[in-house]
Design brief:
The chain is mainly α. 49% of the residues lie in helices and 0% in strands.
Length: 124
């Protein structure tokens, strides 16, 4: 009986955990504009700025945007961008690429990162 009572709690906890990680793409667009757009574009023409285009970034291998010169520190990671790898990178870029060129120090709030990643996921 004790095990049966814990199953609904586990299901509820797992369901809420999924909701906690779902981002708000509209809010993410605003955060992107505030924190990322000076250096990155999401334009479909793969327009590079100070940083590479982030159009269709999810599923793309690091260091593969044509016309952008990546730091060896980042390009050599072999990472394929996923929501999880983007979350880690946005939280602390120097952890993945200690000698990377990105000047951004990171975004500390998990909810903000989830929102930006939801916005990036819409750029397919």
């Amino acid at each position: 009986m004790r095990h049966l009572m814990s199953l609904p709690c586990l299901a509820l906890a797992l369901g809420l955990a999924g909701v906690a990680h779902a981002g708000d793409a509209g809010r993410g667009a605003d955060l992107f504009d505030e924190s990322c757009s000076e250096c990155h574009s999401v334009a479909s023409n793969l327009h590079n700025k100070k940083g590479p285009s982030l159009f269709r970034v999810i599923g793309r291998k690091v260091g593969t945007v044509p016309g952008f010169e990546y730091s060896p520190s980042l390009a050599g990671t072999g990472v394929v961008w996923s929501p999880a790898s983007l979350d880690g990178y946005i939280a602390n870029p120097k952890k993945l690429a200690p000698q990377g060129k990105m000047k951004f120090e990171g975004m500390s709030k998990p909810g903000d990162r989830a929102d930006v990643i939801a916005f990036l996921a819409e750029n397919k």
